[in-house]
DNA sequence: GGCCGTTAA
DNA sequence: TAGTTTAACGGCC
C-alpha cells in the first residue's frame, strides 16, 4: 500500500511503535515531491529494485541440489558456531534515552510536556518521545518535521554541553569496566564480568546501580541491555527503552527464543537496503535467515552470509568503537555549502579551512597521514570521492590542502 | 590503491 | 525554499 512512496520513514526506533507509518510517509513524500532530494531517492529506490530482481534471477538459476549443498555448508557453519560459543561474559550495552533532547528538557522544564527536537530546520539530531509520536525522529530535516508536527519546538544543538554530560556518564561507567568501549556521546558497551565476580552482586543489580548513579549525577535516564554478547545486549536495551533495562539469561534456549522473532531491521548492520534485499528473498525475521541459509549463502558473499548466520543465532561478538585513538583509521571534516555554489575560489577557501582543521586534529593526537581524500556532493545529491597518497606522512595543513586542491581541481576537470 | 555503496549515531 | 557530519567496513577493479 505504501510501496509507491519513495521516501520511507524508519520507524524502528524506540517510542515509535504502532505509528500510522503510511500517513506519515504520505506527508513526508508530499512535502518532498519535486525536490532534487526526492529525485535522488527515487533513483536509489530504482537501483535497489534492480538489485533485488538481479539477485532473484541469479538464485533461480541454481539447481535444487546446489541449494541443498549450500544449506548443508551453512548448517555446518552454524554447528561450529554453537561449539565455540562463549557464555562466560556479561556484556552491557548502555544508551542514554533521547540524549540531546533529554539534556535540553532537563535544563528547560517548559519543554518537558511538549514535542521537541534538537537540531535545525535542515536537520534534526534527536527528538523527544512526545515528538516521536508524530513520526519526528533523528536524521529528519526540521522543515519536514514541522509538517508532521506544527507545534514542534526545535532547540539548537549545544554540543559542548552534551560532551560535558557524556564525560560525567563515562566517569561512572569506568567504575564498572575501565576498558569500556564508547560508541558515541550517549552509548557504550561494557564487559562487567570482572565486576560481577569481585562485587558478588548480580548483573541486574549492578546495572540498576549504574543507571541510578547516572540519574543521580545527571538527572538523566539511561536504558541498558545485559546479555552474553554485545549484539544481544544492544537489542535488549533497545526493546525496553526508555528508562529501563533487560537481562537476557545466558542459555542457548533463552537466546534462541529471543532472537528468532526479531525483525531483521532490528539488527545492527542491517539498514534500509539490506532489509529490502532480504525481504526480496521473503526473509522477515532472524529465524527466516536461518531457515533460508542455503539461499543466503548463494545470494551474498561468504563474509556477509556468515555474518547473517551468526546474527540468526544471536551470536555476534564484535562492535567497533573506541575509548582512545588506537584503532582510528581516518580523520575528516566536511561542510555542505549553500545550494548552487559554483565559485571555485570560494570552494578552495573552505577546503583550505577544512584542511587546517584536519591537520590540527592530527597534531593534537600526534598522528600523521599518508592518504588525502576529498568528498564532493552536487546539487542533485550525487556523492563522489577522490583520493591520493602523499609522498611523506604529514600533519601539515598546507600540504594536506595542496593535495586536496589537486584532487578538487581534477574532479572539476572531469566531464 | 582508489572508488563506491551501506551503515550508524 | 529547505535534506548533516564523522567514521568504519566490504565489494570491486
TrEMBL record:
Q: Which GO biological process annotations does it have?
A: DNA repair; DNA replication; error-prone translesion synthesis
Q: Where are the transmembrane segments?
A: none
- EC number(s) given by UniProt: 2.7.7.7
Give the highest taxon in the source lineage.
Eukaryota
- EC class: transferase
Query: Is Endoplasmic reticulum one of the keywords?
Result: no
Kindly state which reaction or reactions the protein catalyses: DNA(n) + a 2'-deoxyribonucleoside 5'-triphosphate = DNA(n+1) + diphosphate
Q: Which UniProt keywords apply?
A: DNA damage, DNA repair, DNA replication, DNA-directed DNA polymerase, Magnesium, Metal-binding, Nucleotidyltransferase, Transferase
| Molecular function as annotated in GO | damaged DNA binding; DNA-directed DNA polymerase activity; metal ion binding
The reply to whether DNA damage figures as a keyword in the UniProt entry is: yes
User: What is this protein's record name?
Assistant: DNA polymerase kappa
Amino acid at each position: 500500500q505504501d510501496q509507491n512512496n519513495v521516501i520511507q520513514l524508519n520507524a524502528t526506533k524506540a517510542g515509535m511503535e504502532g505509528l500510522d507509518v503510511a500517513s506519515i510517509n504520505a506527508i513526508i513524500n508530499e512535502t518532498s515531491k519535486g525536490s532534487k532530494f526526492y529525485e535522488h531517492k527515487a533513483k536509489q529506490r530504482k537501483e535497489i529494485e534492480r538489485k533485488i530482481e538481479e539477485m532473484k534471477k541469479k538464485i533461480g538459476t541454481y539447481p535444487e541440489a546446489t541449494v541443498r549443498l549450500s544449506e548443508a555448508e551453512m548448517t555446518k557453519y552454524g554447528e561450529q558456531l554453537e561449539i565455540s560459543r562463549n557464555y562466560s561474559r556479561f556484556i552491557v550495552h548502555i544508551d542514554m534515552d533521547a540524549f540531546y533532547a533529554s539534556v535540553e528538557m532537563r535544563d528547560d522544564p517548559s519543554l518537558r510536556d511538549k514535542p521537541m527536537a534538537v537540531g535545525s530546520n535542515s536537520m534534526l539530531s534527536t527528538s523527544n518521545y512526545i515528538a516521536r509520536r508524530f513520526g519526528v525522529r533523528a536524521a529528519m530535516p526540521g522543515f519536514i518535521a514541522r509538517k508532521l508536527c506544527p507545534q514542534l519546538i526545535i532547540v539548537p544543538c549545544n554540543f559542548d554541553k552534551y560532551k560535558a554530560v557524556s564525560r560525567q556518564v563515562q566517569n561512572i561507567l569506568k567504575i564498572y569496566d575501565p576498558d569500556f568501549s564508547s560508541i558515541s556521546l550517549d552509548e557504550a558497551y561494557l564487559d562487567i564480568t570482572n565486576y560481577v565476580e569481585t562485587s558478588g552482586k548480580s548483573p541486574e543489580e549492578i546495572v540498576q546501580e549504574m543507571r541510578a548513579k547516572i540519574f543521580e549525577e545527571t538527572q538523566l535516564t539511561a536504558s541498558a541491555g545485559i546479555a552474553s554478547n554485545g549484539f544481544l545486549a544492544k537489542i535488549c536495551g533497545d526493546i525496553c527503552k526508555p528508562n529501563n533495562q533487560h537481562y537476557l539469561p545466558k542459555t542457548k534456549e533463552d537466546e534462541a527464543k529471543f532472537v528468532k522473532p526479531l525483525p531483521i531491521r532490528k539488527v545492527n548492520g542491517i539498514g534500509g537496503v539490506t532489509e529490502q534485499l532480504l525481504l526480496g528473498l521473503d526473509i522477515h525475521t532472524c529465524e527466516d535467515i536461518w531457515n533460508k541459509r542455503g539461499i543466503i549463502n548463494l545470494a551474498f558473499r561468504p563474509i556477509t552470509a556468515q555474518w547473517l548466520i551468526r546474527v540468526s543465532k544471536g551470536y555476534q561478538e564484535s562492535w567497533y568503537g573506541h575509548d582512545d585513538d588506537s584503532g582510528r583509521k581516518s580523520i575528516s571534516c566536511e561542510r555542505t555549502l549553500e545550494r548552487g555554489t559554483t565559485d571555485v575560489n570560494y570552494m578552495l577557501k573552505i577546503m583550505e579551512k577544512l584542511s587546517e582543521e584536519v591537520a590540527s586534529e592530527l597534531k593534537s593526537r600526534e598522528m600523521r597521514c599518508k592518504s588525502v581524500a576529498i568528498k564532493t556532493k552536487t546539487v542533485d545529491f550525487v556523492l563522489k570521492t577522490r583520493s591520493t597518497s602523499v609522498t611523506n606522512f604529514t600533519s601539515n595543513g598546507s600540504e594536506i590542502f595542496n593535495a586536496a586542491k589537486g584532487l578538487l581541481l581534477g574532479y572539476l576537470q572531469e566531464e
